[in-house]
Design goal:
By secondary structure, this protein is of the alpha/beta class. It folds into two domains: 7-162, no CATH class; 169-342, no CATH class. It contains 17 helices and five strands. It has helices spanning 7-21, 33-41, 58-69, 93-103, 128-136, 150-162, 169-176, 179-189, 192-197, 202-206, 209-223, 231-242, 248-265, 281-297, 306-310, 313-318, 327-342, and strands spanning 26-32, 45-46, 77-81, 87-91, 138-144. A hairpin with a 5-residue loop joins strand 3 (77-81) and strand 4 (87-91). The chain is globular, with a radius of gyration of 26 Å.
């Protein structure tokens, strides 16, 4: 116990807690999905300025629908009564707009893992019983009373969206896949040479960025021509395809050879310059995969003028973040490095 805290301090703290608690008044309700969507479509829900734009990609949208069809729980939706009678969406715009798109046959299911047989389906293509079940499925909704001030609603939104740290993609994969393949990737990621030539900040290293980089290296090396737009779904699919048939010996050989090559011929490894303390993903992908593809063609490769094209405007444009994960950009940046190393570009 802190000896500096007096009885008076405790009394004042109790008063403050009670005052702040009294500012939040709410009901807990269960609304069927069809009811939520109908009200949203008819403009009965108000989206305040502090809410996010509708930014979910299709990967997140179809994952929500799959979760609902599987009967999995989803996070609470927070609404607020207003004096005009509208319900303000405090948190849940992404989920509600996704449900609206699906029930209105504007969202096609793609890339589902558990329910792979309904890939390509719209809502109207589902079995009638499943349509009815989804329509009638109730979602738990917290409805703030109209006397809840706007600053409290904003505070709630901010806390819901910033109070927890989202698991990184690598952390999620460790929980979802596991097994010998991920164990092998983790073992490679722990080798010190990677961080020597591709430094990763302590913050990102704790989020297992080293594992992410190695997965990208192998996934793009073996299938970049089939990349579409979603990096994480692309890597997940690669893991699914490789986990039971991977050649650890060959993969380790290529990975080691790539690192040794970068260490020998690239003045700053995968860094932009000598003082850089972290390695951008797109730069690592372009260089590591380009090296690997070139070495598959010529194991005795001895490149020339590496620094010239590394510092060129063409390479910088291909490895900037803007549009970095478009299908065209991924292909161009990897093949740019491959061809430059082979003396063909």
């Amino acid at each position: 116990m802190n000896e500096n805290i007096t009885a008076s301090d405790i009394k004042k703290a109790e008063k403050q807690i009670l005052e702040q608690q009294s500012r939040v008044d709410y009901d807990i309700r269960d609304f069927p999905i069809a009811f939520i969507v109908e009200n949203f479509d008819e403009g009965e829900y108000f989206v305040p300025e502090y809410q996010r734009e509708f930014v979910w990609g299709d990967d997140y949208k179809v994952r929500l629908i799959e979760s609902l069809l599987l009967g999995l729980p989803i996070p609470l939706i927070f609404l607020s009564d207003t004096e005009t009678g509208e319900l303000e969406i405090v948190d849940g715009v992404q989920r509600i707009s996704t449900l609206s798109a699906f029930l209105n046959n504007e969202l096609q299911l793609q890339g589902l893992k558990k329910l792979s047989l309904i890939n390509g389906f719209y809502f109207q293509d589902l079995p009638p019983a499943q349509q009815r079940k989804l329509n009638s499925k109730s979602l738990r909704v917290i409805v703030l009373r109209s006397n809840t001030s706007e600053d409290i609603r904003k505070e709630l939104f901010n806390r819901l969206n910033t109070s927890s740290l989202k698991a990184s993609d690598s952390e999620v994969r460790k929980g979802s896949y596991g097994g010998e393949f991920l164990d092998f990737i983790i073992k490679l990621s722990e080798r010190p040479k990677l961080l020597e030539i591709a430094p990763i900040s302590d913050k990102l290293l704790k989020r297992q960025e080293n594992i992410e980089l190695i997965l990208r290296f192998f996934a793009y090396s073996n299938n970049y021509v089939n990349f579409k737009h979603g990096v994480q779904s692309f890597i997940d699919e690669y893991i699914e395809n490789e986990k039971d048939k991977f050649d650890a010996g060959l993969m380790e050989e290529e990975y080691t050879r790539m690192l040794n090559f970068a260490e020998k011929y690239f003045p700053y490894g995968f860094r932009k310059n000598k003082s850089a303390k972290s390695t951008p993903r797109v730069r690592f992908e372009a260089l590591s995969v380009g090296i690997n593809l070139a070495l598959r063609i010529n194991k005795d490769l001895k490149p020339r003028d590496v620094e010239v094209w590394l510092n060129s405007d063409d390479f910088k444009k291909l490895t900037t973040s803007d549009g970095s994960n478009s299908k065209t950009r991924v292909k161009k940046r990897i093949e740019f490095v491959r061809d430059k190393l082979l003396g063909e570009g």
